[in-house]
Amino acid sequence: MSDTQSHTVADIAVADLNLAQARGELARLAQVLARANAAYHTQDAPDLSDADYDTLKQRNAAIEARFPALKRPDSPSEQIGAAPAEGFGKVTHRVAMLSLGNAFSDEDVVDFDAGVRKFLGAPGTLSYTAEPKIDGLSLSLRYENGALVTAATRGDGAVGEDVTANARMVADIPQTLTDAPEIIEVRGEVYMSHADFAALNARQAETSDKQFANPRNAAAGSLRQLDATITRARPLRFFAYAWGDLSAPLADTQMGAIRRLADLGFVTNALTTLCDGPDDMIAHYRQIETQRATLGYDIDGVVYKVNDLGLQRRLGFRSTTPRWAVAHKFPAELAWTRLDSIDIQVGRTGALSPVARLKPVTVGGVVVSNATLHNEDYIKGRGSKGEEIRGGKDIRVGDWVQVYRAGDVIPKIADVDLSKRPAGAQPYVFPQVCPQCGSEAIREEGDAVRRCTGGLICPAQAVEKLKHFVSRGAFDIEGLGAKQVEQFYTDGWVREPADIFTLRERFGNGLQQLKNREGWGDKSAANLFDAIDARREIPLHRLIFGLGIRHVGEQVSKLLATHFGTWEAFETALTQADIGAGAAWDDLMNIDGVGAVLAQSVITTLQQAAERASIDRLVAQLDVQAAARPTSDSPVAGKTVVFTGSLEKMTRAEAKARAESLGAKVAGSVSAKTDLLVAGPGAGSKAKKAAELGIETLDEDGWLTLIGDA
């Protein structure tokens, strides 16, 4: 586990977290989910089940919803999957392959239905489809004029791996379609049945080849062979259940579209059914759960989707998940094993994070060797308010511990068997100094986390900051990943981001020294320097995200970039801003999605002398591209809109989503920069202020006429 985190007690309900605990928990979640993404999507070697992964993502989303200003630069809510693996061509999805939100209880399903109806303003019963959630590898198949032209994995949701040659080897995937739309992207899951998996592993054992841990790994590994003839020999299957780019609609409903896919020759799941409301949905979930062991293939839950495709379009999407679908996941499992040691790791924010090293144990079909210990209170058997957890049992090296994977990528320790505690086992003493740099590690009042005070003199913090800088959502320099950053930092080549762009200058041509290093040759060295030069021209939002400002994730970076437009405007405004007051502060706070904590963090970063000097050295090496202005031809593209009062023909959430889809910026308060106020019945102070400022004001009917929805 590469820690960039602060931790808090994971048992605490989101509603009970205080600010410091929420910050720590978001840091922990970011770390473990990033590691899981790489293990699952890129390495085909997951260290957790899908149920565990999705539970943790749901907790992260719930904390961000309650504390929006704490959203991190590396927020898991802004990430889908992982970057495509090396060795395959890349395919950009015309329509993003998004992940699903999750439900883990009957109450969650009821809440999902209530949320959908609230968004739509629909008080009656809605119809949903319910289908088994296949535990396999997501695949998108693009057909043009009836012929299969490309097949791509999910990748990071935007760009996947080109596995067209391999997909042609899967019997369930038609090579041609009859009576299909001119363009159709069929999406589904590649999987392997239990019987075929057992037979494959038996053959692998006979030839002393690698055996697979589970059917999902076997399916993913088989589809992602560089030699398609190997894929041909593997018993892969495919269920179709969705679509991407279309030149013509398949049907008016989700169920109708699934039937159309079946008519086109795709295998669809026979357990897919229609449900009227949450009671029917939960009943179908129970029915599928009882059949789970006899299906002959792995599933990890049931997916519910709003059946009416018109309503799906109205509901739209969040940043990484659709509002009209949710995955109801099956429960996780427990296992007992021995705790061999406790390691302390230091992250980008200086957090000291304890990690349990375990004797490897299989939990839910996944081999687990690490567990998060959150913080020093958790090890002592205490919660954030001093209450007992695990019955007050502390955790010691040598203990026999129960590993619980309900939501944790790196699982937590749920219990300790005191009857098996070794004689002489001593209580764990949490370090008071940083194990990386020796600086004092302090725990501020109200914080669950102890932090290194070394700052940039701490190598762990410096390296993690550099890793963030080159991460996918930031500068994403090809050939310069976490391993290379660590190598260059250790050798003194790179100590801050600006150093990356002066490598060639500081080392002559750079190439001669680099190409002679282990793992580098002429071509790889030249490619690296070319990749660095290619990133000298960088979009503003990537630069802002790459700075690693606390609480500023990818979405917030885009908000800031869109609002300020240029780097010059951004740095000038924040350099002159006073925290808590003044025009610059008000302007920042007027951005919908920016709160006081986030605003203070951005201002503080730009006004700290050492930090600012480092940023200035970086920007001097770059050509920062202004934020792209909305290209929509709608009359509200690029305008700042504020909604106030009661809307009667759509909910506030739907109105905001619609405005943003047309290229408008939605603000939470009226200012001199507001272009348009949409005022429903009950409009108060915002309408009065808009009138004082001479801002155009429309009622709901006027707004709908303006955007062409009347």
Distance between the termini: 53 Å
Number of strands: 24
Q: Which fold does the CATH topology of the largest domain refer to?
A: D-amino Acid Aminotransferase, Chain A, domain 1
The CATH architecture classification of the largest domain is 2-Layer Sandwich
Describe the structure.
There is one protein chain. The chain has 26 helices and 24 strands. 36% of the residues lie in helices and 19% in strands. By secondary structure, the protein is an alpha+beta fold. The chain folds into five domains: 155 residues, OB fold (Dihydrolipoamide Acetyltransferase, E2P) (Beta Barrel); 196 residues, 2-Layer Sandwich (D-amino Acid Aminotransferase, Chain A, domain 1); 65 residues, DNA polymerase, domain 1 (Orthogonal Bundle), CATH 1.10.150; 87 residues, 5' to 3' exonuclease, C-terminal subdomain (DNA polymerase, domain 1); 67 residues, BRCT domain (Rossmann fold). The chain is globular. The N terminus is likely disordered.
Summarize the entry for a quick read.
With 710 residues, the chain is an alpha+beta fold. Helices cover 36% and strands 19% of the residues.
